[in-house]
Amino acid sequence: MSSIESKIKLKEMVITFILRDLINMTLSETTFTLGRNTKNALPKLKDIGDKSAHSRRFIAVRQDIDDVKPDLRCVVQELLILAGLK
């Protein structure tokens, strides 16, 4: 089991993961280096997710998603490459 897998499994035993925890762990991980674009994009993606999930009066519309598509692509592609899946 890799170091990252161990950290995630340990964290799962202590508390349930929330997106904030996953992003903070990803940004602070030292076994890989994230690009500047990914580091900047993760909080933006979290923000729109939080608004959509927790705000009573905010409903994400197509334009909201279209605005973060480049950020989403950057994050997904970098994480897939780091994971050895692409």
Report on this model:
By secondary structure, this protein is mostly helical. It has one domain (3-82). Helix content is 72%, strand content 0%. The protein is built from four helices and no strands. Helix 2 (19-28) packs antiparallel against helix 3. The longest helix is centred in the last third of the chain and has 21 residues, at 62-82. It is globular and about 40 Å long. The protein starts with a helix and ends with a helix. 3% of the residues are buried. The model has no long low-confidence stretch (mean pLDDT 86).
Q: Tally of extended strands?
A: 0
Name the quaternary structure.
Answer: single chain
What is the N-to-C succession of helices and strands? Answer: HHHH
Amino- and carboxy-terminal Cα gap: 21 Å
The major beta sheet can be summarized as:
none
Total domains: 1
Morphology call: globular
Instruction: Return the average pLDDT rounded to an integer.
Output: 86
Please, how many helices?
4
Percent helix range: over 70%
Strand content of the residues, in percent?
under 5%
Gyration radius from CA atoms, angstroms: 14 Å
Structure classification: mainly alpha
Unreliable residue runs: none
